[in-house]
Design goal:
alpha/beta; globular; single chain; Rossmann fold; 8 strands; 6 helices
């Protein structure tokens, strides 16, 4: 069952897509979008998590720039998506996601345990939620720019799972190496490296989608979330 809700933050309010499990209750999950907004891909991801038993909520990250963005990873949409990404304030984004986290915890049927799962831009933000929020568990898919905040690794006190593409064209090899070295020092961080794969390998119908690797990563995510959210 899907619905829309409004989440209040200190600077205003923003919308979110909600997918609920058939049972009507379960742990919460803040699903953090890519640079394309709450598009069909993100709604499908939330729906899949709902089928797995989670109350999955996708907040509108770009509401401060342009509410209701829905783009794809091709043509002029791709150019617009990168424009929004370059204008996006990650620190304000984390503030919004912390507000979303609190709102999800208050949703009817939520068990009180809430995690995050993020992709691309959302993968970076899931990492920052691990360092700056009290989310119960966090999952990052091919986060871009994590190397700029490695000094925060020591702040992580709850489990974090990182899916890292071995040939991510948006993360330089040297940056990828620094990330792997830094997170290896924190036993709460689990890292999976996918050799030979490019950015967004788990985006269904995307230009770089790799079905076998996506299914492997998604299975690892569900196992991880089940272990830490119940």
């Amino acid at each position: 069952m899907a619905e829309r809700i409004t989440i209040d933050s200190k600077d205003g309010s923003f919308g979110a897509y909600v997918a609920r499990p058939g049972a009507g209750f379960g742990p919460g999950l803040v699903v953090i979008q890519e640079i394309f907004g709450i598009n069909a891909t993100m709604r499908a991801i939330a729906d899949a998590f709902a089928r797995a038993g989670y109350i999955a909520v996708v907040p509108d990250l770009f509401w401060r720039l342009e509410p209701g963005v829905e783009l794809i990873d091709q043509g002029s949409d791709l150019e617009k998506a990168f424009g929004l990404y370059n204008a996006y304030d990650e620190d304000l984004g984390v503030t919004d996601l912390i507000a979303a986290l609190g709102a999800v915890r208050q949703l009817e049927g939520c068990t009180g345990k809430v995690g995050t799962v993020g992709y691309c831009l959302g993968g970076k933000l899931a990492y920052l939620m691990a360092t700056r929020s009290d989310a119960d568990a966090n999952v990052s898919y091919y986060g871009v720019g994590i190397e700029r905040n490695l000094e925060e690794v020591g702040n992580i006190s709850r489990p974090l799972l990182l899916h890292i593409a071995g040939e991510d064209e948006l993360v330089a090899p040297a940056a990828r190496g620094r990330i792997l070295d830094a997170v290896a020092q924190n036993p709460l961080i689990t890292t999976y490296l996918y050799p030979g794969l490019g950015h967004a390998f788990a985006r269904v119908d995307g230009t770089t989608y790799q079905k076998e690797a996506a299914e492997l990563a998604n299975g690892r995510t569900l196992t991880f979330l089940s272990s830490h959210l119940g």
